[in-house]
Specification:
heterodimer; A: 250 residues; alpha+beta; Alpha-D-Glucose-1,6-Bisphosphate, Chain A, domain 4; 2 domains; two-stranded antiparallel sheet; 9 helices; B: 389 residues; alpha/beta; Quinone Oxidoreductase, Chain A, domain 1; Rossmann fold; 7-stranded mixed sheet; 6-stranded parallel sheet; 14 helices; 21% strand
């Protein structure tokens, strides 16, 4: 989806990409669940029964397409929030106050080097397309998954929104908003992250096991952003010495 | 390089570790010349503070010489002799701007470990759990100091190391505790604990004009230092039926105008409440033995000030009703060292206060585990062991 298309969709209140993605995810979830169900039933053992139950659960999830984050988001009223509410998956929100203006913070956020510093090794940005971010999770034995998001909407000094490409295995979106803080306190920055892997709860669990925990990612990203803007650097233990060796990135 | 590392609960070992490097442009690396144990180290050594990892370099109270300088450091050069506060400030956030340096927003790289428990994030500190930043500590030949322009304070040539070393933490903390008390003419200040921080609080309270200072502890040599160095009266809590009644008797029934807790979560004591605390702490049902703090709350006069310097976890059985009904003012913080260090060095240079008597023992880094043993068990009159890497 292009930036222009999304703006047009927002004006008419229709977000065309969400149903497509949802349908695709449901197919993957039902397919995975059905496969596990069949394998489990063939095994005729305790492990097989567990697999069959898991598969059955995934089929159920795929069919009813229940969304954990949907209920909370539906109470929100803006067009942007309605667009977020139309997506499924798990959504986290964190805020921080940074001692400078919203306009400056917006400019800093859209710098490619800022995004890679605040999200760390989870995000890479291609120099050719600074609005396309590649997200990566690493599991054991060299296993990894990547998916791409693109900035689809922005209002300088106010907000920025990105979404996964339609062909992404892991669905999701994010927004960052800037609002003036009271007095001379600067700007309140609110980051929302949504991640919606196929497989519902199982998919979420696997993503978390791979270290992609949206709550922690959002907390760290905002803290790093604040430090970067206010001090020019991000606090790090990158080469911290210990008897374990060098480096202490948790 | 050699460093003193936390291996497990009550297991410290000297290890070979990599040297620290300039990691951010405002860093310096110091060659550590003197570094000392702090009573708060005992909390994670004894296993009461979580998020230590095997191999962590400990130590947060230190001084040294600048060995390497980051490219954006403007006020320091190689060879400068400096003392460094234990909590790391950035100098740029609103909290540092308000002189509340231990609340700095920008120096803790592990906010996700602290925020769920505290509801917010403190500044980072050297060698003191990963929740408090995970920075390598100072009991090593070299240590990295972030935001060096804000955190390194040049030591005047006329001061010996031991006159400056304790400005890093014990002296700054004790001084802050006395400062919290807003001492006025005629005030009596009672201080629980005659270790390094308690003695510094007593001396500072005297310097700030307290008419009477009362030190409370059980070790004779520490009580002696309280009398001889801080000019305090003393109470041996094992020799009286009730510390609260003793204080009441000594203050004409009013109670001290201000009470300073320089003990923290591993308070010793007597009686059934202490036994209850000890049993619950052993069973991991709560984190703190709060005998000293509870005594201070009960003893303090109506409308008085309670200044809490001791380190605590998530204490239960906390007598909030007494604080409320007596209208006490509670002031507490981890030390805002950057606010006080210049003043402390000035006091030392002008001969108004000399903390060097805290350094009762000196060890090489290789012998640091033995130094901690002496310190923990208060053997041989040990108030502070100082290590010279």
């Amino acid at each position: 989806m292009t930036y222009a298309q999304t703006v047009e969709d927002e004006r008419t209140g229709v977000v065309s990409s969400a149903p497509d993605r949802t349908r695709w995810k449901r197919i993957v979830t039902i397919g995975t669940g059905g496969g596990l169900l069949l394998i489990g039933l063939r095994k005729r053992s305790t492990g097989g029964a567990t697999l069959a139950l898991l598969g059955g659960f995934l089929c159920y999830r795929g069919i009813v397409n229940r969304s954990d984050g949907q209920h909370d988001l539906e109470r929100l009223g803006t067009s942007l929030d309605r667009a977020e509410a139309s997506a499924g998956g798990r959504t986290v929100e964190r805020s921080i106050t940074v001692g400078t203006s919203a306009a400056e913070l917006f400019e800093r956020w859209i710098e490619p080097s800022t995004v890679t510093q605040v999200f760390g090794p989870v995000v890479e940005i291609s120099p050719e397309e600074s609005t396309v971010w590649t997200w990566r999770i690493d599991g054991p034995f060299g296993w990894h998954r990547t998916w791409r998001t693109e900035v689809v909407e922005s209002e300088p000094g106010e907000f920025l929104r990105w979404e996964t490409h339609d062909d992404a295995l892991v669905d999701g979106w994010g927004t960052v908003r800037f609002r003036r803080a009271p007095g001379e306190r600067g700007t309140e920055v609110t980051l929302r992250l949504n991640v919606d892997p196929p497989g519902g709860a199982l998919g979420n669990m696997l993503v978390e096991r791979a270290g992609f925990i949206p709550e922690i990612l959002a907390t760290k990203a905002l803290r790093r952003f604040k430090s970067l803007v206010e001090t020019g650097e991000v606090p790090t233990l990158e080469r911290n010495p210990s008897a374990r060796g060098r480096g202490d990135l948790l | 390089m050699k460093a003193l590392c936390w291996h497990d609960v009550n297991d410290l070992r000297v290890k070979d570790v990599p040297e620290p490097q300039i990691t951010n442009p405002r860093d310096v690396v110091l060659r550590v010349t003197k570094t000392t144990a702090c009573g708060s180290d005992l909390h994670f050594i004894d296993g009461y503070l979580p998020t230590m990892r095997e191999g962590d370099i400990i130590g947060h109270e230190f001084m040294g010489e600048v060995a390497r300088v980051g490219r954006k450091v403007t006020s320091l050069e190689r060879g400068n002799r400096v003392v460094v506060p234990s909590f790391i400030g950035c100098g740029s956030c609103g909290f540092c701007g308000d002189d509340l340096w231990s609340l700095c927003d920008n120096t803790n790289p592990n906010p996700e470990l602290q925020e769920p428990v505290l509801g917010d994030v403190t500044a980072g500190i050297y060698g003191y759990t990963h929740a408090f930043g995970g920075y390598a500590g100072s009991h090593a030949e070299f240590v990295r100091v972030p935001h060096a322009d804000e955190n390194c304070f040049p030591v005047p040539d006329e001061l010996v190391d031991e006159q400056a070393l304790f400005a890093s933490d014990a002296w700054a903390t004790g001084y802050m505790g006395a400062d919290f008390c807003d001492i006025e003419d005629g005030d009596t200040v009672a201080i629980w604990g005659c270790g390094g921080v308690g003695l510094m609080a007593q001396q500072s309270a005297r310097l700030m004009g307290a008419e009477r200072v009362i030190g409370i502890d059980r070790f004779p040599e520490r009580l002696r230092l309280s009398r001889s160095e801080a000019g305090a009266e003393t109470i041996d809590y094992t020799a009286v039926d009730s510390v609260v009644e003793e204080l009441e008797a000594r203050t004409g029934g009013r109670g001290p105008d201000a009470c300073i807790d320089a003990v923290g979560m591993e308070a010793h004591g007597t009686g059934i409440v202490h036994a209850y605390d000890r049993a619950k702490q052993r069973l991991k049902l709560h984190t703190d033995r709060g005998k000293a703090l509870r005594q201070a709350i009960v003893a303090c006069r109506k409308g008085g000030t309670l200044s809490i310097l001791g380190v605590y976890g998530l204490m239960d059985a906390f007598p909030m009703g007494i604080i409320m009904n007596k209208g006490l003012t509670v002031k507490t913080a981890q030390q805002h060292g950057q606010r006080y260090v210049p003043k402390l060095l000035e006091h030392a240079a002008e001969g108004q206060m000399d903390p060097s008597y805290l350094a009762t023992h000196e060890f090489s880094l290789e012998d640091a585990p033995r130094g901690y043993e002496l310190f923990k068990h208060k053997e041989d009159g040990c108030v502070r062991p100082v290590f010279a890497p």
